[in-house]
Amino acid sequence: MVTVIIPSYNRAEKVKVAVESVLAQTWNDLEVIVVDDGSSDNTKEVLSALDDPRLRYVYQDNAGACAARNRG
Fold it and tell me: How many CA atoms lie within 13 A of 21 on its CB side?
């Protein structure tokens, strides 16, 4: 299994494109973990619309990119 961790902060549309790119790969044994670092935009709603069991969404209060990567 391959795990891709994507930290994000107020980048709803960019993170959507990144997640879709990972999910479109030919290697199917993968998961994507997006750690939302306290975004105030619609990141959660955008990712919820993707509806793929390989996608996990984790929210945390804003603590910085390093903390989001570590959480992932």
Answer: 8
d(C-alpha 72, C-alpha 70), whole Å = 5
Beta partners for 37?
Answer: 60
Phi, psi at 24, each rounded to 5°: -85, -5
- Does residue 66 have a pLDDT over 90? yes
Instruction: Report d(CA 63, CA 9) in Å as an integer.
Output: 10
Q: How far is CA 71 from CA 26, 33, 65, in A?
A: 27, 10, 10
pTM for the model stands at 0.92
Question: What b-and-e string marks burial along 22-53, b requiring 16 or more CB atoms within 10 Å of the CB?
Answer: bbeeeeeeebbbbbbbebeeebeebbeeeeee
